[in-house]
Design goal:
mainly alpha; 8 helices; 3 strands; elongated
Length: 313
């Protein structure tokens, strides 16, 4: 199976448009945040700077994902987007910590804010972030784009909260509402980022993909007529939307020409039920000596040992 990614021009255009809108809003929120003395608005500016960098990083990742596989990169650059999402999520966690610390300082030393200006700028932010989030939603099946989508969705909700906070300050005069809003925004950023970090780490560490049960896959393969046993089964993600499988399959003694129908049935089941399209299946007529540990990592050799040990099937 040749692993060649195809360019997605629509995705690139959406990311370019999102970068332009986000940059304009960053300038506006920072400028008016300083004028209104609003930490919530300045926090929004900082958050949107990270969004701008996230979109840029995702755009670069999409470009690399579109590059074909080579002899050096036989799977292409499918994990470029996963790596971009991981970096984006880590920067958001750092940003959330900074916002929370600044908000705590602001609670100890309150500063008067201009609630009307907060509300006007935040209203523009809801429109901008909501537009970008809507455009990105159609591509959110890709973890790279989903990380940016969550950024923008979080921004939409947090800027809506700034409007509510501005109205509360306007009618009550309680300036502590502004830093409290900032802490809520930081918590939202942290919550969305941790999920992305966990998902991307699982892909980078070649863990079993989300929503895939190893036992269910083994059962489906063993239900194919002619399959005696399935072992040494591994499933991992090549990118955010592609999965791969490698396994040893025990079958009865039969001519090689008859094996093809079993292989075809196994691959058909994997494609239809689990969306696994890249498989490496090794047929055997008798099980491995260590049935469920055929490819277990070799034991570490003692320091200074000169003999090299291995095993083969």
């Amino acid at each position: 199976m040749h692993m060649v990614a195809t360019p997605n021009r629509k995705m690139q255009r959406v990311l370019q448009f999102s970068m332009g809108l986000t940059f304009a809003y960053v300038v506006a929120t920072f400028f008016f945040g300083l004028r209104a003395h609003s930490l919530a608005l300045i926090s929004e500016a900082g958050h949107n700077v990270s969004d701008l960098l996230a979109i840029l990083l995702s755009f670069v990742a999409v470009y690399f994902q579109a590059r074909p596989a080579t002899e050096e990169k036989t799977f292409g650059y499918q994990r470029a987007g996963v790596l971009a999402a991981f970096v984006n999520a880590l920067t958001l966690i750092v940003l959330a910590a900074w916002i929370a610390i600044a908000a705590i300082h602001r609670l100890n030393a309150p500063v008067a804010v201009q609630p009307r200006l907060m509300m006007y700028v935040a209203a523009a932010g809801v429109v901008m972030n909501g537009t970008v989030a809507t455009l990105l939603w159609r591509f959110s099946g890709d973890v790279n784009i989903r990380s940016v989508f969550l950024h923008m969705l979080g921004d939409t909700l947090s800027t809506a909260a700034v409007i509510v906070g501005g109205a509360a300050i306007l009618f009550t005069g309680m300036t502590w509402i502004d830093p409290v809003l900032s802490i809520i925004i930081a918590a939202m950023i942290l919550w969305s980022s941790v999920g992305i970090v966990r998902e991307t780490l699982n892909i980078l560490l070649e863990g079993t993909p989300r929503n895939v049960q190893l036992g269910a896959v083994r059962e489906a393969m063993q239900s194919v007529p002619g399959v005696v046993n399935v072992h040494d089964l591994h499933i991992w993600s090549l990118g955010s939307q592609s999965r791969a499988l490698a396994s040893h399959v025990t079958i009865p003694e039969m001519p090689m020409s008859e094996c093809s129908s079993i292989l075809e049935a196994i691959n058909c089941s994997l494609k239809e039920r689990f969306h696994i399209y890249h498989t490496t299946i090794q047929f055997e007529t008798r099980g491995c000596e260590t049935t469920h540990g055929c490819s277990a990592p070799p034991e570490l050799e003692a320091v200074g040992a000169h003999d090299h040990h291995g095993h083969s099937h």
